[in-house]
Structures are given as C-alpha cells and as structure tokens.
Amino acid sequence: MRLKFSKSLLPALVALIIMPCCGSKSSDGGNEFYFDVDKTRYPVWGIDVSRHQSHINWEKVSDSGIDFVFVKATEGVTVRDPLYKNHFEELKKHQIIRGAYHFFSYKSTGKDQAKNFINTVRLDKGDLPPVLDVEFKRRMPSRKKIISEVKSWLKDVENHYGVKPIIYLDYDFYQKYLKGSISKDYVLWITDYYGEPEDWTFWQQTDRYKIPGVNTRVDRNVFVGSKRELRELLMKR
C-alpha cells in the first residue's frame, strides 16, 4: 500500500522521512536535503535552465551523460529570456535533446502569450514539444478563468507546431485546476520534491542538483520511460 500525506505536514515529514537518506553538506556548512530517485528505475534524466543559470559550459554538461534539457524561452506577452537563443543553439551543437518552455502569467490572455512564444521559438525535428509552465501565484484568478486561458494557449501553440504541448505544473495545481478539465493526451511534467507523484511523464524531483558546467544549483528531471520512448515524443517535423 502506498501512503499519501498532505503537504501541509512538510516540515515534520521532511525531517522524519527524507533527511535520513538524502542528506548532504552545503559549502556553508549547512545541510541540504532532497528526495532522490532510483536511478536504475529512472535512468533517463535532464535539467531545465533559464537566465538564472547565466553562462553554462555545455561541453561539460554533455559529458555528464545528460539526456535532455528544457530552456525557458518566454514569459507573459513581452518577456523573452535573454539567454534562450544561446542555450538552444549550444544544445543543438552538443547534440543534447532540447525543449523550450513558456512561463504563464495571469495578467494577460493565453492567446497573447501564445503569440509571444510562437514568435520567439522555432522548434526543429528532434526537439521536444513546446512546454507550458503554469504555477501557483499569491493572487490566483478563478478556476474557470485559469482553465479558459490555459486552454487558449495550448490550442494556439498546438495549431502552430502541430503537436500537443507538454504541461509543467505542481501536482496540487494539477489536482485543483486541470485534472478532468484537459485531455488526458497531454504529457505532464510534474514537480514534487517530497516523493513520486502520479500521472507524470517527466518528474522534476529536486531544484538542488549540482552538475559539472553549471555554477548554480539546477532542477533535475527524470523521464518515466526509456531513451527510445523519449525519442518517440520528439517533434517529427
């Protein structure tokens, strides 16, 4: 039987469950902990990056055995990540599977945000499908509004690229806003740092990963299947 806990109990649960098996010392002498995965069960993995990672030595990253990288491209209706183009070109140069994501804003329509992404991102054969990143904010619109605008972005982006986008979100967000409201055909990239979620194809399991070639901590993601199954998801045109 699989036990499930409320995330409101995180402080106690992290101390009791995660810390004993996943601890490490940080450079400042403190402890840093995260839920690790069985790498024999989920050997296909990657990271996601944005301008916050600044300069990246992609040759060193490539040598780490990484399988894929998601890169932030856009946010809202006007923001374009200043390092997106460089990261995307370097990934192609080093033959690392790449994908681009859009950070969703609740201050503008999904249609207008889709235009920003489409005008910024060119996806080639062999790239991952486009990604929509939707997250909790302090002030959230109504559930109806969120579903409507998210669907609008997904529809326009799918029509442009000819493939269903991947959706990145917290599992609680999925349960509250999108489960039962969107097609089950969408690939879900779910973040959960305290245990394995449900219904995922990509799982962001920590934001504290260290990898050669990147000076900051990064998000580490695993793929549910094999390398062959990952390639089946890639853009066909």
Description:
α4 packs parallel to α5 (143-161). The chain has helices spanning 10-18, 58-63, 84-93, 110-120, 143-161, 171-178, 227-232, and strands at 23-25, 31-33, 45-49, 68-75, 79-80, 97-103, 131-133, 166-170, 187-191, 202-209, 218-223. The model is unreliable at 1-31 (pLDDT under 50). It is globular. An eight-stranded mixed β-barrel has the order 3-4-6-7-8-9-10-11. A two-stranded antiparallel ribbon has the order 1-2. The chain is an alpha/beta fold. It is 29% helix and 23% strand. It has seven helices and eleven strands.
A few lines on this structure:
The protein has about 240 residues and is of the alpha/beta class. The chain has helices spanning about 10-20, 60-65, 85-95, 110-120, 145-160, 170-180, 225-230; strands spanning about 25, 30-35, 45-50, 70-75, 80, 95-105, 130-135, 165-170, 185-190, 200-210, 220-225. The protein is globular, with a radius of gyration of 18 Å.
